[in-house]
Amino acid sequence: DIVMTQAPLSVSVTPGESASISCRSSKSLLHSNGITYVYWYLQKPGKSPQLLIYRMSNLASGVPDRFSGSGSETDFTLKISRVEAEDVGIYYCGQLLENPWTFGGGTKLELK
Amino acid sequence: EVQLVESGGGLVQPGASLKLSCVASGFTFSDYWMSWVRQTPGKTMEWIGDIKYDGSYTNYAPSLKNRFTISRDNAKSTLYLQMSNVRSEDTATYYCTSGTLGYWGQGVMVTVSS
Fold first, then answer.
1. Is A62 on the interface with B (CB under 8 A)?
2. Where are the alpha helices (DSSP H) in chain B?
3. Is A63's Cβ below 8 Å from some Cβ in B?
4. Contact present, A44 and A55 (Cβ < 8 Å)
5. pLDDT tens-digit readout, A39-52
6. Helix (H) or strand (E) run with residue B30 in it
7. What is the rounded distance in angstroms from the CA atom of residue A92 to the CA atom of residue A22?
8. Which among A48, A54, A101 has the least Cβ separation from residue B47?
């Protein structure tokens, strides 16, 4: 199985500042079709996960453009600019390249 | 508005069977692959498997393949997860999701305990 490793486990951010979350995969997530199959999800407190970023850098519908995704074949970053109170929750990266799809352990974002 | 509504969870004894359902609305269910994902009490996310839009093909996480079965009824816009010989480690919240996990249901809790 592809192992997804996130860092840090938690991050505390002042509202209005930016935050970055890292994710590393144990295998390249770059498919021969040129698409990198890494996804980012946010689970707000008491809610279901929601899709933020698909295929490494594409913003899901309705997601503010304060969120952005980038990376290489095995190292990925989710950046949140101008953090707001509604951004609090647990962020997960996931790989949808091969069976079984796997997820990172999550990064908890809190406000200072 | 896309809605995925799971049901069928609860407290079950080890070794029992359980069938979860997920009713979809707000999109053309029969056009989409669908998946089940579970989240343990410790917040670990685990993909269970998925099913092709016409129900003709399924994929499973190897560790669950022998005990879990995914099916669907497109006429009822409903996705199913049949769980057999459940174990304590199956205790989790189970989510129905669409496509590449773009939409998620509210989740249904399954607790395996004697």
1. no
2. none
3. no
4. no
5. 999 999 999 999 99
6. none
7. 10
8. A101
